Amino acid sequence: MIDAVVMGRVGIDLYPNELETPLAEVGTYTRFVGGFAGNVATGLARLGVRTAIVSRVGAEGHGDFVRSWLTGEGIDVRFLATDPYWPTPPTFCEVWPPDRFPLTFYRRPTAPDWQLSPGDFDAEEVAKARLLYATGTGLAQSPSRETTLAAVRAHRGTTIFDLDWRETLWDVPHEYPALAAEAAAAADVVIGNEEEVETSGVTDVPTLVLKRGERGATVYDRGEETDVPGIPVEVVNGLGAGDAFAAALGHSLLQGLPLAEAARRGTIAGAIVASRLACSEAMPRLVEIEAVLA
Questions:
Q1: 239 burial via Cβ count (<10 Å: 0-12, 13-18, 19+)
Q2: In total, how many domains does the chain have?
Q3: Domain of residue 15, residue span
Q4: How many whole angstroms separate alpha carbon 142 and alpha carbon 110?
């Protein structure tokens, strides 16, 4: 039985072995599984949640790597389809601690996960999962746009919509606010940072978790506002911290914890990942989060 389903972007991240170096001068990279769905699914699985990923990869070596790595993490990959035409997208990163991590995406004109269609997964099995994650990036192109919205509307458990605003991934950026609002209206919890909330205009929702980076988070839950302090940490790479936050928050909700406590655990998970280089491989295990709580 699946407890959580994560829909959306997955690919490979190429992280430089030379830090604080422009992309033009980087000589070597290390490959990791990346993307919201890859990272969050890994984060959930490492916290003991039975997790499935709903996405697509290419029919080549990088796609095989993603599938094999996720399987090794205990993630259900039955709904990780293989696209016969579009290759698995790479993302290149520069690392300039503590707060500059430029990304170069190779997703033009499209990517396998943007070709996600209803036939790629069992709609009923996804609908009955206790937890479903969807993202703003999944709305950037069709048919992923329609597939994502349909899954969010049909889901009968707790739905988490991550605003995940990345302007460079949208052919028509001004379409984002209306689509984000549509998905948010069908979700139980909306997550976003300050820029994402401002860009989307999504504020009139019952439950919003506003990520504030090193300043922690603010939870708006049915008229009540709670500030959650940040966790001091020496930042190595801030990328992936938000995905770790989302995973720990979802795990906590599955445990029946209040949303503010779930956000507190999310800030701990995010801080742990920010102190490491990679995203997916940096996702913490439950014992690490509990050690900080203790």
A1: buried
A2: 1
A3: 4-293
A4: 10
Q: Hey, what are 66's tokens? A: 């993603």
CATH of the domain at 35: 3.40.1190.20
pLDDT along the chain (294 residues), means of 10: 96 96 96 98 98 98 98 98 98 94 96 98 98 98 98 98 97 98 98 97 95 94 94 92 97 98 97 93 97 93
d(CA 184, CA 136): 10
Query: What's the pTM?
Result: 0.98
